[in-house]
Amino acid sequence: MTIHSRIRLSVLALTVVLGLVGVQLTAQNAPPVQRVDISGDWQVVTQEDTPNYAPGPELGDYAGLPINENSRQKAISWDASSLSQPERQTQTHPAQYIGNNRGPARISKILEPVTQRHIGYALAGGFGRADRIVWVDGRPHPSEYSEHTWSGYSTGAWEDGVFVITTTHLKTGFIRRNGAYTSPYAKMVEHYFRTGDDIAVFIWIDDPLTLDEPMVRTYMLRWNPAGNTQAGGVFESVDELGDKPLGWVPFFTLGTRHTEYADRFKIPFEATLGGAETLYPEYQLKLQELMKQQPTARPAGR
Closest Cα to residue 167, out of 156, 159, 175? Predict the structure, then answer.
């Protein structure tokens, strides 16, 4: 080997070493991830959208939901009595419902047994032990052909001090208690903004099959150290349908018009059907035109 070849090899080796040192220095100088802990016992504070939480939305009230024809048809035909079927009585609430309506009562850290490294959060759900696991150790979501469950598959990460949960692999499930639902292709993203003893939760759910636009919900969690949340009780299936035959499925026939909500509040029936346009302030102008087209009620006795 000539002297020139040795010099070239030495320069190449020095370049590689300096490059590695530079990478290491860059990694050491990178700003640390700003983490905010969300573990603890929490109480949902329902200061907004109260009817959606309790007593729940009325039959036929889909205003303000960006549902499309697919979701609307299923919602109109859905009968809450179906939850009295033996196979449904012990069914847990789906994550896309519990996530945007109730929130977790208890959030616990999951630590790797040997190293005690933080690898996830366990979110204790409400009705039906709607528990969820949120992995924070960087693992990817599984294949789209993997199993879909009521809880879905969730991963979390911190973005500028906000804890963000991404959930996929959800089963078909309702998002409101009057039948609006999402398909197995839905994706849910939750943002946890913690300030002291409060967490503001911002959620959006997107679904190409049932929603024209992402559905957005917000609610508040307040630290509740005296909550001492316990595991849910054991369910037992009983006969709630009386004289109905085994396998009977409650439903409303296609073409049903749930007009009770519109009649009660004296608003146009069209406005109760939801859709992306009902989310925006500009819809008030269309609502005013629809109100003008409403038939004038005749005085009693004439």
Answer: 156
* Cα angle value 281/282/287 (rounded, 5°): 100
Region 252-257 average pLDDT: 90
pTM score: 0.82
CA separation, residue 12 to residues 4, 6, 69, 179 (Å): 12, 10, 65, 67
Report the distance separating Cα 150 and Cα 166, nearest Å: 15
For 173-219, how does the pLDDT look when each residue is reduced to its tens digit (9 = 90+)? 988 888 899 999 999 999 999 999 999 999 999 999 999 999 998 88
